[in-house]
Amino acid sequence: MFSPENAARKSLCGGKPDPLQTQGVTCQEDPSGGNLWDTFQLLQIDVDCESSRDQFTSNENGCSRNVLRKQRHWEKIVSAKRSKRKLERERRKAKHAEGKGSAHQLSKRELKLITKERLLGARETGPWLCIDLSMTSNMTQKETSRLATQIRRLYGSNKKAERPFWISLTGFVENSPIYEACLRMNDGFANYLMDVTPESYLDLFPSKTIVYLTPDAEDALEEVDPHKVYILGGLVDESIQKSLTLHKAQREHLQTVRLPIQEYMVKNANAKNYHSTTLAVNQVFDALLSFHATKSWEEALKAAVSPGKGYVLREETI
Ligand SMILES: C[S@@+](CC[C@H](N)C(=O)[O-])C[C@H]1O[C@@H](n2cnc3c(N)ncnc32)[C@H](O)[C@@H]1O
Question: Can you supply a Gene Ontology BP term from the record (predicted)?
Fold first, then answer.
């Protein structure tokens, strides 16, 4: 009858009738429970007892001293391996127990709840941010798609922030190209925790609380005031429609500010001699979020103004 034990012996002895067994010798059992054949199999040693016996002097059990010496040698190795594995198991167990004892790891559900609470908290306390999507009708399809992507990134940054803003998409008209692009390109857009409305920010907030961010403003933004509403122009153009938002905000008698890039950064010498202080909406928002959390413009601008804009922090030039 086939049994692993028999098969083992057969293989150990080169497939021939087991000379050890025929002489009343069973293959030695490993003291720790495993069959010695396992050991040989593990170490890929193929020992032919008969040929060994031919070459060396046999002991009283019929196996040569050489084979027994080898057996003892490999037994030692296997036993060392076994102890190493045991130690490794114990180390893993200890590490696991240590992890359980330390700070409670938040589940996905708990994290989602915290995010929701933070966002809803910002709706109550501010600061508020609107993306003005009333100027998107002249944008190309490519620009519209880029803007939808920037809105997704902006929302993603806000969700991760410890001190988020409450976001509104204003001038957001149902079935418009930007509406379609947001739904098509941004997974879960319908469930974003933000306000969306076709109305203008002028209909939603008192004018004196509104601050329009535009790269062409004269004054630099100094503080993020939780009682103000910050407006970003929903545009991706950088040169064609220069000063578009500045002129719009001026017509609406709103305060206008720019990021303090010139105050904290200097032009970097670069091969293309390209320098621009006009950022994408999500980059401007990242600067606002970072400043709101750290109160450091250096930190905020370093994170938001990419090297491609041709500006570096003043301190980096020293
Ligand atoms: C790609 S820019 C559009 C620039 C466009 N020429 C304009 O007239 O606003 C998108 C929006 O990001 C904001 N923005 C970009 N760079 C800015 C900066 N340096 N300071 C303040 N706001 C900025 C503005 O709200 C701007 O409308």
Answer: tRNA N1-guanine methylation
